[in-house]
Amino acid sequence: RVVVMEFVEAVAVRDHDELVALGAKPEQVLHAVLGGLLESAFVHGCFHADGHGGNVLVGPSGQVVMVDFGIVGFVEQIDQQGCAEILLAVFTNDFTRFGTGLLMLQAHGLVGPGAGEAMAEVAARHLATGDFSQIRIGTLLKEALETASQHGFPLPSQLVLLFKQILYFDGLARVLAPNFDLFEDAKAFVPMLEAVSAGDIEGAARLAHPAQ
Questions:
Q1: Closest CA to 90 of 201, 205, 26, 184
Q2: DSSP 129
Q3: Which residues share a beta bridge with 12?
Q4: Is the pTM of this model over 0.85?
């Protein structure tokens, strides 16, 4: 038995057939999940850190519901800027920004010089082709995290948690909508991340809910 705060009538996103029967559109669900993760982490500084397919639900009216907040991650504003730059590098196919983000984290003592250069090479290898249909953001971030660890500079646990949520999302997208274009969808959130990168969290909050 589990003590809960409220009952929510909803379907887990991992239950594809039930989701379709509900009339939910996978692409819209994914857009809402991605937006919720980015806003919570980069505007509010905290995020659901266990967002697998069983903890992400869709209600009768199409609203996305997150349950089981047993693991919550936190991102300090000083780290939000560097992380935003890294995601902007991926979402805009500009791997020089990946290096900029690493330099920001490096300046705060989060990433060592050797690890930063190696991680930038990982990003360049994935992004340089410009063929977004062949790029898996999950694979890119997984390699980057492994590279940092191999160089003796593992990222702080909170940032690892954040990147792991993006890995979860990547896996979820493969199941729900294999043809979902993450890079095209993510363009809606680029202005918000640009504001975060510039240190304008209030501006980012205003940009957190772009029209689909």
A1: 184
A2: T
A3: 57
A4: no
